[in-house]
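Limitations

Structures in this collection are predictions, not experimental determinations, and the ligand pose is part of the prediction. Treat each record accordingly. The example that follows, with adenosine-5-diphosphoribose as the small molecule, is included so readers can see exactly what is and is not provided: the inputs are given verbatim, and the output is the predicted complex.
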Amino acid sequence: MARNKIALVGAGNIGGTLAHLVGLKELGDVVLFDIVDGMPQGKSLDIAESSPVDMFDADFKGTSDYKDIAGADVVIVTAGIARKPGMSRDDLIGINTKVMTQVGQGIKEHAPNAFVIVITNPLDAMVWVMQQATGFDPKKVVGMAGVLDSARFRHFLAEEFKVSVKDVTAFVLGGHGDTMVPSIRYSTVAGIPVPDLIKMGWTTQEKIDQIVQRTRDGGAEIVALLKTGSAFYAPAASAIAMAESYLKDQKRVMPVAAYLSGEYGVDGIYVGVPVVLGAGGVERIVEINLDESEKANFDKSVTAVRGLVDAAKGML
Ligand code: APR
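Predicted complex:
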């Protein structure tokens, strides 16, 4: 069987990390695309030269020509600009809407059967622009945010409880912004919900509230430390988990920015919700029960996403 082909549009910090992870995990051959001449070629060659050491078989090609993404099974998009200290994700909307339109046309023309994962911010609006630009079935166009936000939440919870991250599950719903909704009720240690762990004396409500806020500010915390760009290791790892679930039909249940058609009372936009991700793309949207306060926070987040989508619409 031929190897899968994975096209990475945007070969910056996240794009380069994605290419390396695809190689290490032997998910397929990689096409690394960027508008900067030489950079995708240089990163591709560098990663290919690491393959004899790490013992993986994959082809790497750097390019600035959309023809090279032809026949890609998965396209992961990080093209655009990343934020600098003091900027919110929403500040990127002007430039990145234009970039998504351009990239979407390239994907539509050369990789019409691809499963598309968008990482570019502001995420929920950019994945909407990508779906519009490609005209693809919304089940085949998703945004990566929830896996990252819940990974941050899981990391902080594991640190607090002093247990393995492997035994911590967590859910973050809503938009990928300040209004995201980390759910305490649906977060567990080996199946024990966090509210029960508070009752068991493992932590306090106050500490959990701090962790929820740190999760919401997770991206900004990294931006403030790095000063020259935004997070890239955890975002890349998160998108790879989604690509793997699609390529291997794993049917993993993951929070992703998915197109909603009435689910959660939302229609016609992308918002972070749990889904089943398999060979059909988004195979099922999981409608979990939200209590009053979760619902109010989710609705607030949806309103923020709608505002961004309207702003992007105005720029198209
Ligand atoms: N087509 C292709 N690539 C482009 C285009 C375009 N029209 N415009 C910009 N790029 C490339 C840049 O040349 C750069 O190499 O996108 C790359 C982005 O890389 P970085 O600046 O290193 O940003 P990164 O950290 O990878 O983040 C990318 O993901 O998480 C989001 O907020 C983040 O929107 C940002 C994106």
